[in-house]
Amino acid sequence: MEIRAVIFDYGCVISLSQVKQEIDAMLDLIGIKEDIFTTNYYKYRLEYDSGISGEEYWGKVLSACHVNYDREMIIKLIEHDAKSWIAINQEVLDLAKDLKNHGYKLGIISNMPMDILKYMKENFPWLKNNLFDTTVFSCDLKVCKPDLVIYTKCLERLHLRPAECLFIDDVEANIQAAQKLGLETFHYRNPEALEVLRRRLLKNKSTR
């Protein structure tokens, strides 16, 4: 079946890897070893992605790290955390624009906390200019990948069958979940893979 839509993950696909400078800023604020911080940062991350507040999330992280904190520290952590995830992979965004110009529908399915999504909406023009036909973020839906509900919601909004959509993600579990629903998938591992994907999707595809 012909692919009619391409659905992108955000973190480490549309965005680059987490910005080290911002991670270091969070570590300096908290004053603990990076391995302890990383363990607890991800321990509660899906709860944050599912819609709990930044204050509740960071309260859990800091308590697990045995760190005394106040609201001012949490506000600073939320800001640094948001900034750590907003370095854009311009090559991927350029590919999305090319796909749009060649007639594909575009979507985003991403696990995303409310605070980072708010920051993105305020600072990313491409989230406001109809480049993507639909965006499905876990904090809005209260469901995270790899739960099949989040993929189904995106398909409903695109008005397409699974086999008509290609899903791009860097996490194997998310790829496997999409495959269970019947979506075509592309496991994004490095920038070099973009050229393979570009040739696959744009070959013999006429522009609008």
Task: Briefly characterize the structure.
By secondary structure, the protein is an alpha/beta fold. The chain contains 12 helices and 5 strands. Strands 3-2-1-4-5 form a 5-stranded parallel beta sheet, with helices on both faces.
Q: Which regions are unreliable across 5 or more consecutive residues at pLDDT < 50?
A: none
Overall strand count: 5
**Shape, per Cα inertia axes:** elongated
User: Could you say what the CATH architecture of the largest domain is?
Assistant: 3-Layer(aba) Sandwich
Query: Describe the biggest sheet?
Result: 5 strands, parallel
How do the strands line up in the largest sheet?
3-2-1-4-5
Succession of helices and strands? EHHHHHHHEHEHHEHEH
The count of helical stretches stands at 12
Which CATH class of the largest domain applies here?
Alpha Beta
Q: Let me know the CATH homologous superfamily of the largest domain.
A: HAD superfamily/HAD-like
How much is the average pLDDT? 95
